[in-house]
Amino acid sequence: MRFEDSREFAASLDQADPLARYREQFNFPLFRDGRAPVYLVGNSLGLQPKLAAQYVEEELGKWKDHAVGGFFHPDRPWLTCARSCTAGLAELTGAIASEVVAMNTLTVNLHLLMASFYRPTNERYKIVIESQAFPSDRYAAASQIRMQGYDTDVGLLEWTPRNGETRLHIEDLAALLEAHGDTVALLLLPGVQYYTGQVIDMAAVCELGRKHRCAVGLDLAHAIGNVELALHDWAPDFAAWCSYKYLNAGPGAIGGAFVAEKHCNPENLRQLHGWWGHDESTRFKMAKSFTPAKGAELWQMSTPPVLSLAPVVASLQIFQEVGLAALREKSKKLTAYVAWLIATRFGERIGSITPEDARGCQLSLVVKDKSINGKALFDRLCKLNVTPDWREPDVIRIAPAPLYNSFGDAFEFAERLDLALSQSTS
């Protein structure tokens, strides 16, 4: 489509947007110095759905009025409250219901899943991560290697961009595995690279894992609710995600996990067991022997934190109503409009390291003009009531989320970026 650099054009896109009405279902930060907020960090913390407060209040009401009876209350009983998320998570991940479960937080789930799927031997013990992996993933992988008695300096292999590039090439991962695949036990890779915003070819990663007989785990923190996923068909061994980014479930919200159907027979591999992974029908008989639950629910450990789960349920209700296909259609146009505005207005001064042919919502911007300090520019944007985020050493990340960001937000960001740049040279 042919874009135009005008507030009127942005308004016309919003008027024609079938998802525009969902913006009113979210709470935005406050005005500051007379400026409306331009919130562009759905990739870091999504905005609060107004429905979240209602759902939390309902759970508090059950606790107040029914106490322990809340576990069996007919409206979202606590006994099965995690299943209120199952259908929504299955839709967003392209999985079948038995393969997904809402539980814990991201790094906890990665450790629980690696306890099952990282089974090193003296010949095959290495874990492949990408060189700019989110620190928590690196820490988790390195600690798993160390806990098994191996040297992390040798056991951690990195998939790196080519010299002078930031993009990860699947051909380079294939070459790495051709060279080292017989020593690799696990590929632990992202769905979307957090720093550059590159969408990884997850289907190809899974194929390479199978070819080289490596287990495959995916970190979907920046992918779920952002890009299309087909986990059942791709069949990684496991995946995990948080729900406070694009899923808008609040800081530290309950995350989720996927376990491929072929592994959901508990006789196939070893798991760490907790009482909530016991079969529900006999869980409260308090037997000494463990009867495994069916599907990914087997990996549950403890009683779900009901109050923290309620915002996840609220957010997933909105996602199910909208549908990911509609969100992606808007997202592609919205992010393309932001990218076009930046290239049109600031092409010689501001660039993006996010591949145009492999991106979701996010754009990772860099200052090309060496006379401008990137961090100072970021700070000026914040003072203008724009909320991007800064990643060392030189990236300003923005991520217009299609559920609540508008084309007007895109235009206003360009306006305030123009003002911030002018302040840097005044």
Explain this structure.
The chain is an alpha/beta fold and 426 residues long. It folds into two domains: 7-49 and 324-425, Aspartate Aminotransferase, domain 1; 76-322, Type I PLP-dependent aspartate aminotransferase-like (Major domain) (Aspartate Aminotransferase, domain 2, 3-Layer(aba) Sandwich). It is built from 13 helices and 15 strands. The chain has a seven-stranded mixed sheet with strand order 4-10-9-8-7-5-6, sandwiched between helices. Strands 11-12-15-14 form a four-stranded antiparallel sheet, with helices on one face. Strand 8 (215-219), helix 9 (231-234) and strand 9 form a beta-alpha-beta unit.
Shape: globular
Given the helix and strand composition, which structural class is it?
A: alpha/beta
User: Can you identify the CATH class of the largest domain?
Assistant: Alpha Beta
Any guess at the CATH architecture of the largest domain?
Answer: 3-Layer(aba) Sandwich
CATH superfamily of the largest domain: Type I PLP-dependent aspartate aminotransferase-like (Major domain)
Provide the CATH topology of the largest domain: Aspartate Aminotransferase, domain 2
β-strand amount? 5-15%
N-end to C-end Cα span: 36 Å
Main features:
426 residues; alpha/beta; Aspartate Aminotransferase, domain 1; Aspartate Aminotransferase, domain 2; 2 domains; seven-stranded mixed β-sheet; 13 helices; 13% strand
Task: Please describe the topology of this protein.
Blueprint: H1 7-15, E1 26-27, E2 38-39, E3 48-49, H2 50-66, H3 86-93, E4 100-102, H4 106-117, E5 126-130, H5 135-147, H6 152-155, E6 156-159, H7 170-180, E7 184-190, H8 202-211, E8 215-219, H9 231-234, E9 238-241, E10 256-259, H10 306-322, H11 324-346, E11 350-352, E12 363-367, H12 374-383, E13 386-387, E14 389-391, E15 395-398, H13 407-425
Parallel strand pairs: 2-13, 5-6, 5-7, 7-8, 8-9
Antiparallel strand pairs: 1-3, 4-10, 9-10, 11-12, 12-15, 14-15
